[in-house]
Amino acid sequence: MPPGVATMPSTFQLFPYPLVDWVVNINGQPLKFDLFDVEFWRHYEWSIFDHRIQRRISNHPEIWPAPDVFERWFEKRLGRARRFVWSIMVPSGNVPLIEPLLLGADCVPTPRRLVFENIGGQSVARLRPEQIVNPMSRVDYETLMFAPGDGSVTKSSLLSRQDLSPTVPRHEHEGFESHREVFVCTEHDELTSNDDLLDSLIEHLLAPELDEPR
């Protein structure tokens, strides 16, 4: 996350939901890392804590704030993001909600988990199976690290589900009811120009029942 991306509010809102197993060890077992804890980012030197990024910030004081100021700001954004992800799953009570129309893709392998591998006593995050230096022969890293989606958003993320298997029970804060779900086979950048999705959106907007109070 370069410094420019770190200043975008939507970046923090797109972090994995706390209930999602987004990180595992080399054996495929889930790890419990708090992505909203600034010390986690500082420990692994991610984003603005990367030494290369810090040098860039320090070398351009006319553009970026002082590193300590930027770090405090980053910590506050993490705290706000934590509150945001939990707030979107708070039951609405008697407040009527608009049932969403979900439009997406489900045929492109999409990243869903990081694998942390121990190299020389240090935990190193792997984004893709081919980056793993010492893979375990019994672990299917392709299935573990990727899921159907559009290359950027997984189908399970769009549906707000940790697992799409009908045999896996939902958590009380997981999933929501949608008005309709339409999936096509395309990549993320092509969604807004896909004829099938556009037709579904127009049909949804023009549906006469939308004009009637619920």
Write the layout of secondary structure elements.
Layout: H1 3-6, H2 9-13, E1 23-25, H3 38-44, H4 51-59, H5 67-87, E2 101-105, E3 108-111, E4 114-119, E5 122-126, H6 141-145, E6 146-149, H7 155-158, E7 180-184, H8 195-206
Parallel strand pairs: 1-4, 2-7
Antiparallel strand pairs: 3-6, 4-5
Name the helix and strand elements from N-terminus to C-terminus, one letter apiece.
HHEHHHEEEEHEHEH
Mean pLDDT: 86
Uncertain runs are none
Sheet with the most strands: spatial strand order: 1-4-5
Specify the overall morphology. Answer: globular
Q: Provide a count of the helices.
A: 8
Largest sheet, described in full?
Answer: 3 strands, mixed
**Beta-strand residue fraction:** 5-15%
State Rg.
20 Å
Number of strand elements = 7
| Number of separate domains | 2
Helix content: 25-40%
Question: What is the first-to-last residue Cα distance?
Answer: 43 Å
Give the class from helix and strand content and strand pairing.
alpha/beta
